[in-house]
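Dear support,

I submitted the protein below through the web form. The confirmation email said the job was done, but the results page showed an empty box. After a refresh the structure appeared. I'm attaching both so you can tell me whether what I see now is the final result or a partial one.
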Amino acid sequence: MGNSFSVRKKRFNPKDRIIYEGACYHLIQRAPGKDVLFLEDKDYLYFLHLLKEIQNKFSYKIFCFCLMPNHLHLLLQIKKCNLALGMKSLFTRYALYFNYKYERKGHVFYGRYRPFLCQDEYYRLAASVYIHLNPFKAGLINDLLKYRWSSLSAYLNLPSRTFLAYKEILSILGKSAAEGTSAYKDILEHGTGLGYKSIIEDPKAVDKFVLGLHKKVREFMPGLKNSVTDFEKCLDLIKDKKRLSQAEDIAARKYLIEQLRSRGYELKEIAERLNLSRQTVFLAMKA
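What the results page shows now:
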């Protein structure tokens, strides 16, 4: 009789989530169809209360958030591989609260949350800008400062007491929080003029926004080396090659596939983007 605690090799699934200690994620959750998640101020406040509790219990680092009427965004970093446990606790507790309060039954959230891996500081910075621009781009407000249910006020007002690790994002742009805030304002203003789709409508919306923001961010980070520039170099390197023989080419393909996979691209989309067969992509991901 075998050991009940033996580790069994898991069958590979291209849709498996990339979760590891120290990883940072842009996470999205939404309501089903045209339903809403928040009906009054107390609902937003209760969710934030739960978020603070989850942060402490699971040792998360929360960089920013935006709570919209029918969906929400979180940017966070995990210390342990406990993202699923924390999010299950957060969304289950809020769903129980919401259904009890409004005497309703059924799902409050539409399936599982969607985590997008942020693999470097630049992508983390760009994701925070995307998140904070949500109310403006959705037409809920004309002045970003007037939206109460996002973390933007912390980035601009620099509070000393907050559960948010906002200074880590601002530090990417300047030596001090004040310098970082000034640069962040300029980047936000630039971002309002970029084409912007909801990630609910287009899973690649953040990826496209990050590329559009790259030139502006370079003004504040002249020595910027990040996955955006690396991605384009790797793409140029292998896009016309069917058979790869050089170690550099093979490494480039693996890097590209990992980048696309972590940002929510399906196997079929990765194959089309890289001009490869699905089998080639599948085998590369499995390896």
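Response: this is the final, complete result; the empty box was a page-load delay. The two ends are 31 Å apart (CA to CA).
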